[in-house]
Specification:
- There is one protein chain.
- By secondary structure, this protein is an all-alpha fold.
- The protein has one domain.
- It is 84% helix and 0% strand.
- α4 runs antiparallel to α7, α5 crosses α6 and α7 packs antiparallel against α8.
Length: 238
């Protein structure tokens, strides 16, 4: 009997997600850093022109967001790693208690990939003789036992990428003068989001145009909503 979960079914398609885990986390972290910090500082800019207030709010958002991203990514990838280890442990027990049944299962999996029955039996026997656990891990579970997902890599990538992304809107809002900071921030943020959308599309081998459009539209909407809220709040407070 083998472990059947949605994650393992998906894993049969290959280990691309595992190999690019840190890069995916970096792109998503940078994108979140740009959007969340831009929304925060633009919203504050709608209420006040104070550079000190904008800098304080932006730095607080940068630190809180980067820590949150790192912690969330660490928990998520740790859970994935625990699931991979549990699946490998279960497979190891099954190989120890029912080796013939596992050999038949491996043969059927190879046949399902388009290999003829005779060749599948020969390949399964050779793979089992060489390293049975590795054979089942890679063919059945889509896991490389020597290259499990690393939560620390993902957390560090998310932390650094969020900070890098957040610095752009923070600097764009505090460095220019009061009459220029808003439009400079909007232009810089939308350009950065277009780049993040392009990067995420390339990583996922998806169409670039829709990804860029979604990213830019989402960022524009976030800034528009927070700016309007800031203007309203500023009017009420005053």
């Amino acid at each position: 009997m083998t472990l059947q979960t949605p994650e393992h079914d998906e894993a049969h398609g290959g280990g691309l997600g595992s190999r690019l885990n840190w890069l995916r986390a970096a792109v998503l972290g940078a994108n979140d850093g740009v959007v969340s910090t831009a929304g925060l500082v633009v919203g504050v800019a709608g209420a006040t022109d104070s550079r000190n207030t904008l800098l304080t709010a932006g730095l607080a958002g940068l630190l809180a967001g980067s820590m949150s991203m790192a912690a969330g990514e660490y928990v998520s990838v740790s859970t994935q790693r625990d699931s991979e280890r549990a699946a490998l442990a279960l497979e190891k027990r099954e190989l120890a208690t029912a080796p013939q049944a596992e050999l038949v299962e491996l043969t059927e999996l190879l046949e399902g990939k388009g290999i003829s029955s005779q060749l599948a039996r020969e390949v399964a026997a050779q793979l089992t003789e060489h390293d049975a656990l590795r054979a089942h891990a890679e063919v059945e579970l889509g896991i490389n036992p020597d290259d499990l997902t690393n939560p620390w890599h993902a957390a560090a990538a998310s932390f650094l990428a969020f900070m890098a992304g957040a610095l752009l809107p923070l600097l764009a809002i505090v460095l220019p003068g009061p009459g220029q900071r808003l439009w400079i921030t909007v232009v810089a943020v939308l350009a950065a989001l277009a780049l993040c959308g392009w990067g995420s599309a390339r990583l996922g081998s998806a169409p670039v145009g829709p990804a860029v459009l979604r990213n830019v539209a989402g960022g524009a909407l976030a800034m528009g909503v927070t700016y309007a809220a800031g203007v309203l709040l500023g009017a009420v407070v005053v």
